[in-house]
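Example for tutorial group B:
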């Protein structure tokens, strides 16, 4: 039970960020978040056959590296910023401050068979695959 009146006009602190599921390029099936990664450590280093993701920086600064077979591209996410990771995209994240929080929204439930952990195997699969929009 709320017993205290809060005057919203006097409480201007914090940042409100919104993720509207209707605006995502997929139906969300899972979310996860990553915390307590030591400063400068890299995580990820894999691709997904079917899963699409939206990666959101909730705290700190996170370098996101993406490779769709045409060479790696890098973005530095700050608080509230996000990046789309499509199917068959090799991705990794470098946590810059040691206090970073990464939030991920995924198009599929967890399935270990969806992961590609070997980069050479990933490139081989890319060469054999149909266009990215056609993978089921």
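The residue assignment follows.
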């Amino acid at each position: 039970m709320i017993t205290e009146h809060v005057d919203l006009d006097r409480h201007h602190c914090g940042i409100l960020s919104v993720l509207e599921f209707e605006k995502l390029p997929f139906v969300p099936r899972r979310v996860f978040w990553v915390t307590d990664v030591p400063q400068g450590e890299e995580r990820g280093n894999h691709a997904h056959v079917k899963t699409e993701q939206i990666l959101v920086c909730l705290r700190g600064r996170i370098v996101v590296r993406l490779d769709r077979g045409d060479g790696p591209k890098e973005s530095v996410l700050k608080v509230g910023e996000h990046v789309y990771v499509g199917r068959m995209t090799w991705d990794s994240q470098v946590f810059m401050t040691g206090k970073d929080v990464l939030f991920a929204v995924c198009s599929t439930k967890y399935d270990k068979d969806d992961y590609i952990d070997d980069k050479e195997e990933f490139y081989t699969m890319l060469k054999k695959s149909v266009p990215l929009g056609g993978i089921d």
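The helical segments are 119-128. Compare this with the pattern of hydrophobic and polar residues in the output above.
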